[in-house]
Amino acid sequence: MAFHITFQYPHADVYPHFCVAGLKKNGVEVVDPFHKGDWKTPSSAKAATSVSRRSNRRDPTVETAAIKLTKVLEWIRSQ
Question: Whole-angstrom Cα distance, residue 10 to residue 29?
Fold first, then answer.
């Protein structure tokens, strides 16, 4: 999993999250709400599967990037 943490953190939400390209569940490649895309860094880009799970009413004093990642992983497993 990969994601960007911007300079607004912890007040900005951490999303989208990127995982391996061609992510599969039970042997079948995932589709909506997952998206094919690229994980871009300043020096490169890699094919990836992205998932955007925005937290609209998050509390920046409680929800860390690690907690958000845990929630995203739990959500992926539930799909």
Answer: 33
Assigned domain for 3 exists: no
pTM over cut 0.85? no
For residue 57, the tally of other CB atoms under 10 A from its CB is: 5
Chain centroid, CA 44 distance in Å: 18
Residue 43 placed within a domain: yes
Provide the residue type at 35 as one letter: H
Contacts of 24 (CB under 8 A, 6+ apart): 30
Number of domains in the chain: 1
User: Among candidates 40, 65, 63, 58, which has minimal Cα distance to 50?
Assistant: 40
Q: Give the tens place of pLDDT for each residue, 57-74.
A: 889 999 999 999 999 999
Range of the structural domain that residue 37 is part of: 17-78
